Amino acid sequence: MPRSVNAVASRRRRKKMMKHAKGFFGRRKNVWTVAKNAVEKAWQYAYRDRKNNKRNFRRLWITRINAGARLHGMSYSQFMGGVHEQGIELNRKVLADLAMNHPEAFAAIVKKVKK
Fold first, then answer.
1. 80 CB contacts (<8 Å, ≥6 apart)?
2. Three-state secondary structure call for residue 88
3. Rounded to an integer, what distance in angstroms lies between the CA atom of residue 43 and that of residue 18?
4. What is the per-residue DSSP string for 102-114?
5. How far apart are CA 63 and CA 89, in angstroms?
6. Tens of pLDDT, residues 27-80
């Protein structure tokens, strides 16, 4: 009895992977083994960088809050300590946005924290 291979499923699987490789440069877009390796590596980078992205944004927010607090004569740690003492439940993302785009609102928070 001849060997039976499920060509339909194999082709579908390869087409799906090649679709993910669309837009890659050179052989990475049209040679099966190269494209498969490139797509798998891209998925590894995407997984890792979803975690790194969170870290990077937190660092950015802390930098912005620190800059805003120092304009009012406070360090970041003093400011955040005061925010928690006063029971102000704003996260770093919101505080950073206020420091950047609404300095008068941020100044009001600093004023409350300084008391």
1. 65
2. coil
3. 14
4. -HHHHHHHHHHHH
5. 19
6. 999 999 999 999 999 999 999 999 999 999 999 999 999 999 999 999 999 999
What is the per-residue pLDDT across 12-27, written as a single tens digit (0 to 9) for each? 999 999 999 999 999 9
pLDDT in tens, 67-115: 999 999 999 999 999 999 999 999 999 999 999 999 999 999 999 999 8
The DSSP secondary-structure symbol of 21 reads T
Contact 46, 82 (CB under 8 A): no
Tokens (6 digits) for 85: 């003492």
Alpha carbon distance 110, 63 (integer Å): 16
Domains of the chain: 12-114 (1.10.1900.20)
